[in-house]
Amino acid sequence: MTINTREKKTLRQIAHHLATVIIVGDQGVTEGVLTETDRALKDHELIKVRLAIGDRETRTAAGAQIAASCNAEIVQRIGKILILFRSNPRANPKLSNIQRFS
Prior knowledge:
This protein is an alpha+beta fold. It has a single domain (5-101), classed as 2-Layer Sandwich (Translation Initiation Factor IF3). Helix content is 43%, strand content 22%. The chain contains 4 helices and 4 strands; from the N terminus they run H-E-H-E-H-E-E-H. The chain has helices at 5-15, 31-44, 56-69, 97-101, and strands at residues 20-24, 46-51, 73-78, 81-85. The model has no long low-confidence stretch (mean pLDDT 93).
C-alpha cells in the first residue's frame, strides 16, 4: 500500500487536528502497544502516535517497527509525533477520521 504525495498532504491536513491516540513510553514497542495501535487503525484509519523515547535513532526504529507490524503507512514523522494511516474499506463512518473530516 503506497500513497502518493497529494494523498499524504490531505492526510497531514486531517491529522493536524487529531489528538494523540497511542503513546509509546520507555519500555518501547510492546505487544500491548501493537495491539492497541492495530485496533486504533482499524477504527480510525488515521492516528497520531507519540514516541516518548529519548534517542532519535531508537524513535525512528520504533516507528518503523510499529508501521511494519500493523501494515500501516507512515504519513509524517515530526520529532516525537508519528502519523500512521491504514485504509479500512468497512470502517465505521462515525469513528473513521478520514470519513469524518474529508
